């Protein structure tokens, strides 16, 4: 079993100052491969209903701003 914080003076592959030479794995570095559970498929894009609702809100705001402009001009 390795210690989580090995003594850098006695650890092979460690350069002075605690660096690691290129191509060498640092001590106590773990790795993972893959995932532990199956992932569900992600949906792509927006559905039609959210887009219609957003366009409706934008249209109502535009109508309100145009109405305010007409009232100010008249």
Main β sheet profile = none
Give the SSE order as H and E letters: H
- Which outline best applies? elongated
Structural class: mainly alpha
Considering DSSP H and I runs of 4 or more, what fraction of the residues is helical?
Answer: 25-40%
| Spatial gap, N to C terminus | 85 Å
- Proportion in β-strands: under 5%
The parts where pLDDT drops under 50 for at least 5 residues are: none
Radius of gyration: 31 Å
Average pLDDT for all residues: 76
Number of helices: 1
* Oligomeric form: single chain
Total beta-strand segments: 0
Structural topology:
Elements: H1 48-73
What do these coordinates show?
The chain is an all-alpha fold and 74 residues long. It contains one helix and no strands. The longest helix is centred in the last third of the chain and has 26 residues, at 48-73. It is elongated and about 85 Å long. The chain starts with 47 loop residues before the first helix and ends with a helix.
Characteristics of this structure?
74 residues, 35% helix
């Amino acid at each position: 079993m390795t210690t989580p914080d090995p003594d850098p003076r006695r650890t092979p592959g460690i350069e002075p100052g605690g660096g690691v030479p290129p191509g060498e794995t640092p001590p106590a570095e773990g790795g993972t491969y893959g995932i532990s559970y199956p992932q569900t498929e992600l949906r792509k894009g927006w559905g039609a209903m959210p887009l219609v609702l957003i366009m409706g809100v934008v249209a109502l705001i535009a109508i309100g701003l145009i109405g305010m402009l007409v009232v100010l001009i008249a």
